[in-house]
Specification:
With about 350 residues, the protein is an all-alpha fold. It has one domain. The chain is built from 15 helices and 2 strands. The longest helix is centred in the last third of the chain and has 34 residues.
């Protein structure tokens, strides 16, 4: 019987939580549910960093592991860059057509050089004011992934089981104490210099730690029980973060995510949450993430303004989700032949 894990399902859930959160930043639909904003989005980003660290550790131990951090980073670029630069180009063209920037297209490209190289998280160039601002996550994943792979290659399980958890605790402490809300993280001068990288390194380190501990944990728990427990813990993280995300309980939410991801990665017989359709949709989530900003900032506001009646705002949300999903499918179709030609991917 084929086996799979429920992380595929949760990738879909957390991707759309983040996408809806970004929509709510402009349309403020969360107030209709009795909350100021959909705080789950912060948990979604945390989830993906932890998953990235988990998969990085598994990759480092696999027979086909890249021989060093540079080779690992090159592999990641091959897998991500075509979709990334196509999404950047789409948003860039629309921004130029809008004519709202004082810069010429050439000046705007030069101003975006670090973003084009996918290293904007190093605090080079434009700070948070990016062409496709939500793509900062991929840059952090690349930069921190390179460093973590180097440390794993050099120090192995000492990093995974000792250095990684200590680094995660200390760095998350700095983030949660120093930056009690997102406004401080984004707007206070200087915070961009370390906020994304601290957060990414800390949570990817958590994922590495979880992956190192998983064989021991799962050995003591039946597979189905471990997977079910992981799903319930991730659901609990969603519920808690709905009301209390990005607050004094963020350490608790991070701990829930770590436990949930570690257990949910347990392979079990295929079911409705782990079947081929879910895996196929899950494979497109990175494209949904890359394309949703185009519609949030540059399309939907022209169709249904943010100040519209709440009924129209929910209509705008539905259109936005459909457009972002359709654009993701198109991005996958366009990227595939380019990846095969340039990187020989899939051959």
């Amino acid at each position: 019987m084929k086996k799979s894990n429920s992380i595929y399902f949760w990738k879909i859930i957390f991707t759309y939580i983040i996408v809806i959160f970004h929509f709510d930043n402009a349309y403020h639909i969360a107030t209709r549910f009795g909350v100021e904003q959909f705080n789950n989005a912060f948990t979604g980003v945390d989830f993906f960093f932890i998953v990235s660290g988990f998969l990085l550790y598994k990759k480092a131990l696999s027979p086909s592991a890249p021989k060093n951090a540079i080779a690992y980073t090159a592999d990641r670029y091959k897998g991500l860059y075509v979709k990334y630069i196509l999404s950047f180009t789409a948003v860039f063209v629309v921004i130029c057509l809008e004519g709202k920037t004082a810069l010429t297209p050439v000046e705007l490209l030069w101003d975006s050089k670090w973003e084009i190289l996918m290293v904007q998280s190093l605090a080079l160039g434009r700070g948070w004011n990016l062409i496709n601002p939500t793509a900062w996550y991929l840059s952090v994943m690349m930069v921190c992934g390179t460093l973590i792979y180097f440390l794993l290659d050099r120090y192995g399980k000492t990093f995974a089981k000792v250095i990684a958890p200590v680094a995660a605790v200390l760095l998350l402490g700095v983030i949660f104490v120093r930056m009690p809300n997102l406004d401080v993280a984004v707007n206070e001068p200087g915070n961009y210099l370390y906020y994304p990288l601290f957060r990414g390194f800390a949570e990817m380190s958590m994922g590495v730690w979880g992956a190192a501990l998983q064989p021991t944990v799962v050995k003591r728990i039946p597979e189905v029980a471990a997977s079910l427990a992981g799903n319930l813990v991730l659901l609990a993280a969603c519920v808690v973060s709905w009301r209390f995300g990005h607050s004094h309980v963020d350490y608790l939410i991070s701990a829930l995510l770590l436990v949930g991801v570690t257990l949910a990665f347990t392979d079990t017989p295929e079911n409705i949450l782990t079947g081929p359709l879910v895996r196929r949709i899950s494979g497109m989530t990175i494209s949904v993430y890359l394309m949703h900003e185009l519609f949030r900032s540059h399309v939907i506001p022209y169709v249904i303004p943010p100040e519209s009646h709440y009924r129209d705002r929910f209509l705008a949300l539905g259109i936005y989700l459909l457009m972002a999903t359709a654009a993701a499918i198109l991005l996958e179709i366009l990227a595939r032949p380019i990846e095969k030609t340039v990187f020989h991917k899939g051959k």
